[in-house]
Amino acid sequence: MSIYLALILLGVASGMNIASCNDNTGFTLVPNMNGFTVYVDEYTLGILDNESESMDEFGTTRTYRECLAHATSEARIRLASRTVNDAVFLNTLQQVPLKISNDGVEHFAYSGKCAQGCVYSFLPERLIRDIANSPDLFIHEYAHVLHLATESSSQSKAQAEAYSKFMADERSLLEITYSQPYIPGSCCFWYAATNKYEFFAVTSQAFFLEGSEQRWDWPTTSALLQSESPAAFNVAESYWGISEEELIAAMSECKVPWFELLSDEQWVAILSGIVALLVITIAFVCYYFSCWKKCFKKASPKDDAKFETNEFL
Which of 150, 198, 288, 295 has its CA 20 to 30 A from that of 53? Predict the structure, then answer.
């Protein structure tokens, strides 16, 4: 338990890491997911053909398998409509699998960098229903994949500037417009303000909305994103429209930190070694000072007596 606590404190036990994303033990590949790679654990595999709470446009209840197929299909259609020669999907998103298991509490997240790792969820029923009802949510997590693979690109620099402009100028005016005060760290209406990464993911969601589709938090529609934060809209248009040459060039400069490639077992081994070394060091220090005190007392009892009677003062 102490090792697990140490892992949590050091931030290496949060959800999944690249090493665990690459380990497909206990997972099954779900076929026909429109070019996306989808792995599910045994529990999720068992519910795929059950009816979900999601309905299609005709009011027919979908199975969880149909929900996944619908979400991935919608994502592919929308990506194809806004990207150049499908470059973003073919060079980044296609490489990152979606992994779903019933093994935690996280709803939806991306763990990785440089088009490595995985998008994952530990809440199968809720996640599959949500991305079927709101395909833009599926795009949200894959926006992180694109962003974290191309941070050296000119689009990434422009995106950081758009976020700074939003926080410095636009947000305060929009708080009045929507009667929604901004609370730092909040998870709700101003989630886009969390940091530049969430800003790109959330504005990408709005960017890919179609027709009358609407989100409940800011920005609520694609048209409102364009009018309320023109810089963010332009960045989304430029980023998702990045050319294959620019994309490959930016990805070639992306480096994954070595510690993100370590498996949980390797982290446990490293931390176990650190804990053992600390215990040995503390024991040695205690032993050394204990011996030193005894030796000092034996060598100079007179000095001890002087100290106790304040004769040195």
Answer: 198
- The answer to whether 132 touches 54, Cβ cutoff 8 Å, is yes
Burial of 170 (0-12, 13-18, 19+ CB in 10 A): middle
Q: What's the token pair of residue 54?
A: 């999601």
Torsion of CA 121, 126, 129, 132, to 10 degrees: -40
Chain-centroid distance of CA 70 in Å reads 23
29: three-class secondary structure by DSSP? strand
Q: Are the C-beta atoms of residues 225 and 174 closer than 8 Å to each other?
A: no
pLDDT digits (tens, 9 = 90+) for 168-224: 999 999 999 999 999 887 778 999 999 999 999 999 999 999 888 899 999 999 999
How far, rounded to the nearest angstrom, does the alpha carbon of residue 202 sit from its chain's CA centroid? 13
For residue 99, give the nearest of 47, 32, 25 by alpha carbon. 25
- Identify whether the C-beta of residue 63 lies closer than 8 Å to the C-beta of residue 52: yes
219 preceded by a cis bond (ω within 30 of 0): yes
As a whole number of angstroms, the distance between CA 40 and CA 290 comes to 57
